[in-house]
Amino acid sequence: MKPRVLLIKAAPKADRPSLAPPLGIMLLAAALRDQADVRLYDAGFDMYGAAPPPVDKVRAMIAELRPIMVGISALTCERECMIALAAAVKAVSPETVVVVGGPYPTAEPEAWRESPDIDWALCGEGDEGLPKLLRAIVAGELPRDIPGLVDRVGTGPHLKAPAHPDLDALPIPAYDLIDIHRYADTRFRNQTGLPAYTTYTSIMTSRGCPYKCGYCHDVLGKKFRGMSVERVMQEVDAVVALGVREVHFVDDIFNFDLPRAKAIFRAIAERHPKLRLAFPNGLRADRLDQEFATLAKAAGCWYAGIAVETASARLQKAIQKHLNLDKVSRAIGWLEDAGVRTRSFIMLGFPTETEDEMEASIRYIIGTRTSEASFFNVVPYAGSELYLLAEDVKPGAASESTQAPFYSDESFYSRATGVSLEKIRDRAILRFYLSRGRFFKVLWRTPLKFWFSAGFLETLGFFGVRAAKGLMPWRGRGRSRRSGGAAAMREAS
Ligand code: B12
Ligand code: SF4
């Protein structure tokens, strides 16, 4: 009988996190399945609505399965969940080996050691290292020479596992180990932030991004590696055969190789004319052209995130994003003209950002033709360049904010300056959706059948409350606008 392995996707403590089939652990399961009987568990369902980590459920699973190894995949915002679930595993089965991986351990290769219940971390891509680790555990040997593996005592520098050299050789993620239709439930939000109205999944057609944005983590390397169009189509064919109606591309930078991106659109338009496509985590809009927009629409693309982040030239330089905003405005226009709904992303509250700079970003985005906008709190994560800047400005404030609810005043900026970032965000949302008839356009574009779905009403309620709060004049009157964050941060430091 094959040894059992349980792979868990941890979840953040958030009211309305987006759920998505857990691509990382599905790929790892596919890589392990020759050696092991693998099971998958996505904690996102049980933590929806800011519920605590499902420790009882994991204890019961461990008691039933008695796995030889448990792997937990975690982002930094999922650290508390990861630690709680590792403890649940060891409480029932101390002999089970617990290994963690994903963006959090990759960004902070030793921080997981605060949990006595975790045995190893595997930093970087786990496709080759995890099967090797399992072989060593099964053979009762101490794992040796596994690049990226970090034990409980060794000192750094810890190098990541090398980037997989040939993405075409990766297996198709183990869709048979999840119930993909469970994700299509309008009670939950999918990655586009909308109620999950149809069966959907993510596909990652490339890994790595050569840009060096200071807030971004280098999980999958700095060299762009793209799958061939044929290999991408194998995966698209496989998910369509499972009943998937909408594919979300989650590459770091899908449009880095523009000819490849266009060839993928052409192939999808030809083979799957009814498939819908979306880019929930954002395109780099200064690297696309009008033909890209037209082909995207022809391939079924209805939604694209546009990563703008800031309209301040000073901050674009400071965070090393170096985005050409004229090109971005033009690209938004091309996509909107083609019929692709764009949602632009703005980050508010960079270390040293002034309130005038935030205002410039809000005005810029209101002035574009983008249909929707999301205003995020800046979270300077340890392991990123931005974290170093945040530590210069207000030591400790960044670390304290990583487990906070995404949109609260427990943000780095609010902690460092006393200025209510939540208030600035709420007002920005209100101003944005009241401009250019956007609110009515969003309603108009939402099919009537979703108007009374739980998820849609909840989304409306969420924004309604935020907008109403944005109107309250007495919230967040910490400092005058011109005294601003930068001055306050300098004082604080
Ligand atoms: C798609 C995506 C999203 C989607 C969906 C997220 C979701 N529901 O989980 C959306 C757009 C909604 C999103 C939101 C956010 N995201 Co996001 N997102 C991504 C993106 C682009 C791809 C993730 C993915 O599907 N990867 C595909 C699989 C194949 O990769 P993987 O999971 O990393 O797995 C590989 C390795 O990490 C490793 N591995 C993974 N797990 C394990 C476990 C074990 C045991 C082992 C050994 C190995 C291992 O092996 C795998 C195969 O090689 C990544 C960028 C990136 N390069 O990873 C950012 C990224 C994960 N997001 C990030 C962030 C910060 C966020 C937000 C917190 C942003 C915000 N402030 O709102 C939110 C919160 C997400 C949440 N949990 O609710 C950061 C995380 C940084 C960090 N240190 O935590 C990343 C890394 C972006 C970046 N480059 O900085 N995100
Ligand atoms: S362009 Fe996107 S993926 Fe690349 S470094 Fe910047 S934020 Fe990260």
Counted up, domains total: 2
Q: What structural class do you assign from the helix and strand content?
A: alpha/beta
Bound molecules: cobalamin, iron/sulfur cluster
The order of strands across the largest sheet is: 2-1-3-4-5-6
Average of pLDDT = 91
What topology does this entry show?
Elements: E1 4-9, H1 23-32, E2 37-42, H2 44-47, H3 55-65, E3 69-73, H4 79-92, E4 97-101, H5 103-107, E5 120-122, H6 129-139, E6 149-150, E7 200-203, E8 206-207, E9 225-226, H7 229-241, E10 246-249, H8 258-271, E11 276-283, H9 290-298, E12 301-309, H10 313-318, H11 325-338, E13 341-348, H12 355-367, E14 372-377, H13 385-393, H14 397-401, H15 412-417, H16 421-434, H17 438-445, H18 448-451, H19 454-471, H20 484-492
Parallel strand pairs: 1-2, 1-3, 3-4, 4-5, 7-10, 10-11, 11-12, 12-13, 13-14
Antiparallel strand pairs: 5-6, 8-9
The site of iron/sulfur cluster has 8 residues, from loops.
